[in-house]
Specification:
This protein is α/β, with parallel strands linked by helices. It has 2 helices and 4 strands; from the N terminus they run βαβαββ.
């Protein structure tokens, strides 16, 4: 199974791109930093989706993804 993957705290998108290369059907990355999302979109936006979002307020429906990974989200944002 090659799931649709959500990456919370994707930063500039390098890890999200690696997931796509290793077989994910689709990858969506989120990060609270607008500049990181701007860079990720510039680098990988043709193949991946990115959105500015806080880890505790993701703009997606429940069960929208087959896998959710947290790479670089600030742990303080989960308090």
């Amino acid at each position: 199974m090659n799931p649709d993957v959500l990456v919370v705290g994707c930063g500039r998108g390098h890890g999200a791109q690696a997931l796509l290369e290793t077989g994910a059907r689709s990858v969506t990355g989120t990060d609270a930093d607008p500049r990181s999302i701007e860079i990720a979109t510039h680098l990988y936006g043709e193949r991946l989706s990115f959105a500015v979002a806080e880890p505790t307020a993701l703009p997606f429906a429940s069960h929208a993804f087959g896998a959710v990974l947290c790479f670089d989200a600030d742990p303080a944002s989960f308090d």
